Amino acid sequence: MNVTIYHNPSCGTSRNTLALIRNAGIEPTVIEYLKTPPSRQELKDMIGRAGLTVREAIREKGTPYAELGLDDTSLTDEQLLDAMEAHPNLINRPFVVTDLGVRLSRPSERVLDILPVPQKGSFTKEDGEIVIDSEGKRVV
């Protein structure tokens, strides 16, 4: 099973998502997208396969979103992609790509929908929220 995570190690949600993937016994391909951004076409493909709009895939917090005027609703998808290409920190994270689909894993447990194998044991997020119980079952 191929699993790729577009990861930012300084992001708690991204770290939790990576840990959930590993809790299933999968060692994914980890791409630190701030160092190695996806190509424009890869980004468009991930956004589309995740069922998102380009605007939904933009990160506002901690980015030049406001300074670049990206809240202007008249901007086209191509203009938004231009900004994301020039400033990879505008790409929301983490995107996870598997043979079963693509998810923007916010919250991190959204990754569970596209993992091919169950969790191997309990999992608690960094903030203390229990996501997977001791039997490897998702806590609702």
Write up what this structure looks like:
By secondary structure, this protein is of the alpha+beta class. It has a single domain (about 5-130), classed as Glutaredoxin (3-Layer(aba) Sandwich), CATH 3.40.30. The protein has three helices and six strands, in the order E-H-E-H-H-E-E-E-E. It has helices at about 10-25, 40-50, 75-85, and strands spanning about 5, 30, 95-100, 100-105, 125, 130. The strands form two sheets. It has a four-stranded mixed beta sheet, sandwiched between helices. A hairpin with a 2-residue loop joins strand 3 and strand 4 (about 100-105). The two termini are about 25 Å apart. The model has no long low-confidence stretch (mean pLDDT about 95).
Q: What's the shape?
A: elongated
In sequence order, what are the helices and strands, one letter per element?
Answer: EHEHHEEEE
Strand order of the largest sheet: 2-1-3-4
Biggest sheet details = 4 strands, mixed
Q: Report strand %.
A: 15-25%
Whole-number total of structural domains: 1
Radius of gyration based on Cα positions: 15 Å
Residues in helix, %:
10-25%
Q: Taking all residues together, what is the mean pLDDT?
A: 96
| Extended strand count | 6
Helical region count? Answer: 3
| CATH architecture identity | 3-Layer(aba) Sandwich
Instruction: Tell me the span between the first and last alpha carbons.
Output: 26 Å
Supply the helix-strand structural class.
alpha+beta
So what's the CATH class? Alpha Beta
**CATH superfamily membership, which one?**
Glutaredoxin
